[in-house]
Amino acid sequence: MTIEPEAVVIGASAGALEALSAILPALPAGFRMPVLVVVHVPPDRRSALAELFRAKCKLPVEEAEDKQPITGGTIYFAPPAYHLLVEVDRTVSLSSDEPVLFSRPSIDVLFETAADAYGPALIAIVLTGANQDGARGLKAVVEAGGTAVVQEPATAFASAMPEAAILMCPSANVMSLGAITQYLKEV
After folding, report:
1. Closest to 68 (Cα-Cα) out of 103, 36, 100
2. What span, in angstroms and rounded, lies between the C-alpha atoms of 134 and 161?
3. Is 50 helix (H, G, I), strand (E, B) or coil?
4. pLDDT (tens digit per residue) in 123-179
5. Which reaction does it catalyse (predicted)?
6. pTM here?
7. Which domains does the chain possess?
8. How does DSSP assign 148-170, residue by residue?
9. Under the phi-then-psi rule, with left for phi > 0, alpha for psi from -120 to 50, and beta for the rest, what region is 177?
10. What 8-state DSSP symbol labels residue 58?
């Protein structure tokens, strides 16, 4: 029996704008799952990501707020300087705990907490980036029975993050951005 996916988490760093621009605007208006996104952004200034993608996407796009219920068909971006966590009651939690791998928000933190909340009903995607953030979190998703997807390193602006994710999760589905987009539209 296959488990119906209930949520998507995405992590990206260097080259994120280009990679996310290939995926998020392509999601159809009827896309039923929430999409939670962590991008490494400078902590000392406002992020324009939600604003930028709101103009491009068919789905509602928001910067996540503490204690906000997670709604299907909505894209949530982590705010600068806060970890984005998913609580087991499927609400968002923001934390100013220590950076992980020099990053806050951390992809690992989002993926690990989402794996606890959604288990096998989670799809986790690691995109372009120049460090190892996301690899440990992706492993937690796999261990919880979720689906691991990694951008083909050769197609990434920065290949370190996808390469680290594949090393830690050799069973991950490695795909081009176009294939990731198609996959999401079909699940």
Report:
1. 36
2. 7
3. helix
4. 999 999 999 999 999 999 999 999 999 999 999 999 999 999 999 999 999 999 999
5. [protein]-L-glutamate 5-O-methyl ester + H2O = L-glutamyl-[protein] + methanol + H(+)
6. 0.97
7. 7-186 (3.40.50.180)
8. EEEE-GGGSSS-HHHHHHHHH-T
9. alpha
10. S
